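JOB MANIFEST
job_type = single_chain_structure
chain_count = 1
residues = 159
[input]
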Amino acid sequence: MNRFLQTLLLMVLACVAGGCSQLPLRDPLRISLVGIEPLPGQGMELRMAMKLRVQNPNDSAVDFDGVALEVDLRGLSFASGVSGQLGSVPRYSEVVISVPVSVSAISVLRQGLSFANGDRSSVTYAIRGKIGGSMLSGSTFKTNGQIELPTSLLGSSTP
């Protein structure tokens, strides 16, 4: 009986390993922020629609089922949002999807204090999230950068 269980376990492991080797290897999706639009908010929260460009560098379409993202400004948590949007990114193509995000009044206050006490010439940002897919095909993403603020916003220090 023990020998039978060992053989059965070995066969199952071989099938699992063979199945995993048949999973398609693909390049990760490229996701970038391309726009922000205001949305109506509730009470003291701000709402925005973040437009994300999703590029598929693969030779087969990628279906997605939901998006979640978080936004940090100046190293502090700023906004988060989710969307149950369904769609597909055709092979070697791109689509723009919209994700509504919420910004609490506390986050705005924290950002204001950070801006007043820190470097005011630029703002660093980080956007991270997850785009859902069927079974094992979901993927995470992260992008970050820096936005240089125009000197006209900062006030001139020269006479």
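[summary]
Residues 26-146 form a domain with the Immunoglobulin-like fold (CATH 2.60.40.10).
The CA atoms of residues 79 and 103 lie 5 Å apart.
exit_status = 0
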